[in-house]
């Protein structure tokens, strides 16, 4: 798994660095592999860790290319008065929340993954959101 993540990171850096200021102005390109919709941790590592880091603290290898530092996902409950923000996180994952770090309402990866990789299956889309949200809930710090 670590070997795969390292390869993914190197590939991502190779794509990001040379073309960042040119044709992909403001967009982050991350190679994406289909993941098991029941495995929240696998989805997190494949889709979120490039920006948010494998520990979720916001220091992934793509973070320096973003306009604003990615959110520390391990403190979502703490900054929301001890309540994990399920509805807000679901909205963010579905592209329904504007985040300055992403430059638009749609995170660079989640729009295509949650929209196209489920091949029109809304149950799979919801399964992905629930399982990823559950994993992020599991990495909360006190």
Task: Provide structural commentary.
This protein is mainly alpha-helical. It has one domain (2-138): Cytochrome Bc1 Complex, Chain D, domain 2, CATH 1.10.760. 47% of the residues lie in helices and 0% in strands. The chain contains 6 helices and no strands. The chain has helices at residues 2-19, 40-52, 76-79, 86-93, 110-116, 122-138. Helix 2 (40-52) packs across helix 6 (122-138). The longest helix has 18 residues, at 2-19. The chain is globular, with a radius of gyration of 15 Å. The protein starts with a helix and ends with a helix.
Biggest sheet architecture: none
- N-to-C order of helices and strands: HHHHHH
Rg over CA atoms, rounded to whole Å, is: 15 Å
Shape: globular
Low-confidence stretches: 2-24
Helix count from the secondary structure assignment: 6
The residue-averaged pLDDT reads 74
Q: Roughly how many Å apart are the termini?
A: 28 Å
Secondary structure class reads mainly alpha
């Amino acid at each position: 798994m670590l070997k795969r993540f390292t390869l993914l990171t190197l590939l991502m850096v190779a794509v990001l660095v040379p073309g960042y200021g040119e044709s992909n102005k403001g967009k982050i390109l991350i190679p994406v592999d289909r993941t098991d919709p029941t495995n929240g941790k696998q989805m997190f590592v494949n889709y979120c860790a490039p920006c948010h880091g494998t520990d979720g603290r916001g220091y992934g290898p793509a973070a320096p290319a973003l306009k604003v530092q990615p959110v520390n996902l391990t403190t979502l409950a703490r900054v929301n008065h001890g309540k994990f923000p399920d509805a807000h996180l679901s909205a963010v994952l579905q592209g329904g929340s504007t985040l300055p770090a992403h430059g638009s309402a749609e995170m660079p990866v989640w729009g295509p993954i949650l929209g196209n990789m489920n091949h029109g299956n809304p149950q799979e889309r919801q399964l992905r959101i629930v399982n990823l949200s559950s994993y992020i809930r599991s990495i909360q710090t006190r």
